[in-house]
Amino acid sequence: MRSCLLWVAVVVLVFTGALWADPTVGLVTHRQFQAVSGSGEQTYAETEKVILEGIVLHNPSDMLNPTPDDSITAIYNLSAQWQFFFQGEGDDHAGTAVFMGQLYDNLPWVETGGYSNGEWIAELTRLNAAQFSPGDRIRVTGYFLSYKGKCNVNEQHNKNADHDFTIELLERGVGLPKPEVVSLNELKDEQDQFVFDPNRLVGAEYYQARLIKIEDVNVVDPNAWGPNGELVVTDGTRTLPVKLGRGNGIYPGSFNLTQPFDVIGIVDQESYDLTSGYRLYVMNYDGNGQVLAAYEHRMADQSATVDPNE
């Protein structure tokens, strides 16, 4: 009888432990995490949370506005947002975005509430505790959701602490990867449509969330210049959208690229059809007049140091 009771207790403990166990977590490469189907749908589903390592590509505040305002009630308006890209190394030819928003409850399907201004500032303080910078090697652990063609680490629109992602600084100052030189005919076909390869071996999907350089292009309409604006560049045959960030060098009147120039940025995708909608995200500009790029990205291109991806 005593052994029977002991067996029952063990079963109860095991069952209870299973209920309270941490979600499954897997150390994966960016390529594994960003895998897609023939229709562009994200396919990674092996674990509930992932661990990814890579090189930080930019300052989050140069991409989205992190200033909180919990008075906003407009539907779909998340108020403050925080996001950055980090890139895999070596054979891990891919990258991932990490995202957090303030007012998730402005999304019609979210019931968990949003962050107050004070809570949001506390979250940013927690995430920036490592004080990571572009060129640092980090480890990110968290839940994830797909969004318009890419799989992002995020809180799954849930501000509860059990959905927090974490960022660990592994090594400071490793250095930004040298931007890969890519021609527009590698990204677009003869009809100026994006090349989509579900195996992610060629085309825009191959370069998604990575730092690249496109040479000898012109701006179609410079009037689109400004913070958060979207330009179109062309090589005379093919075109590519260039999304501008909110770095302090992008402001009305700072456009001075009147001759053919190079552009360095991060390949992004936002499209509901999941096989198009790629763009080059340029976070900042230092006004040099020859290369449209954030200063640190231009310096990485000119650097004689060893590329950590080679």
Detailed description of the structure:
With 310 residues, this protein is α+β, with helices and mostly antiparallel strands. The protein folds into 2 domains: 25-171, Beta Barrel (OB fold (Dihydrolipoamide Acetyltransferase, E2P)); 180-302, OB fold (Dihydrolipoamide Acetyltransferase, E2P). The protein contains 6 helices and 14 strands. The protein has helices at 2-20, 30-33, 117-127, 184-187, 203-207, 295-302; strands spanning 25-27, 49-56, 81-87, 95-101, 137-147, 150-154, 166-171, 180-181, 211-219, 230-234, 239-244, 261-269, 278-282, 291-292. The strands form 2 sheets. Strands 1, 2, 3, 4, 5, 6 and 7 form a 7-stranded mixed sheet that branches. Strands 9-10-11-13-12 form a 5-stranded mixed β-barrel. A hairpin with a 7-residue loop joins strand 3 (81-87) and strand 4 (95-101). The N and C termini lie far apart (66 Å). Mean pLDDT is 91; it is low at 1-20 and 305-310.
What do we call the CATH homologous superfamily of the largest domain? Nucleic acid-binding proteins
Strand content: 25-35%
Rg (CA only): 22 Å
Helix content: 10-25%
Query: Which structural class do the helices and strands define?
Result: alpha+beta
CA-based shape: globular
SSE map:
Blueprint: H1 2-20, E1 25-27, H2 30-33, E2 49-56, E3 81-87, E4 95-101, H3 117-127, E5 137-147, E6 150-154, E7 166-171, E8 180-181, H4 184-187, H5 203-207, E9 211-219, E10 230-234, E11 239-244, E12 261-269, E13 278-282, E14 291-292, H6 295-302
Parallel strand pairs: 1-2, 8-9, 11-13, 12-14
Antiparallel strand pairs: 2-3, 2-5, 3-4, 5-6, 5-7, 9-10, 9-12, 10-11, 12-13
